[in-house]
TrEMBL record:
It is found in: Cytoplasm. Its main location: cytoplasm. Gene3D superfamilies: Glutaredoxin. This is Glutaredoxin domain-containing protein. Residues 13-75 form the Glutaredoxin domain.
Length: 99
């Protein structure tokens, strides 16, 4: 859990992902299209992958990836991010982190 919390605060927008996950890719592209350059952590390339998945689930993720943190706080996964985007509440949240 400590590693996930530390990594989630590395940058304004942090995405925990898996290299083969198409939903993770879609979320990454959304943020890039909004002008945000998120920090991506591909947990399947980390030796502590299983522990990180468990920590993300304990934090409240319904699925371990993608897990999106904005300002060090868990926003959620694809469903939550896309819902926020469609309701126009995502852009104001990421505005401080637009390049």
């Amino acid at each position: 859990m400590d590693k996930v919390m530390r990594l989630s605060s590395e940058k304004g927008v942090v995405i925990f992902s898996k290299s083969s996950c198409c939903l993770s890719y879609a979320v990454q592209v959304l943020f890039q299209d909004l002008g945000v350059s998120p920090k991506i952590h591909e947990i399947d390339k980390d030796p502590e992958c299983r522990e990180m998945e468990k920590a993300l689930m304990r934090l409240g993720c319904s699925k371990p990836v993608p897990a999106v943190f904005i300002g060090g706080k868990l926003v959620g996964s694809t469903k939550e991010v896309m819902s926020m985007h469609l309701s126009s509440s995502l852009v104001p949240l990421v505005k401080p982190y637009i390049c």
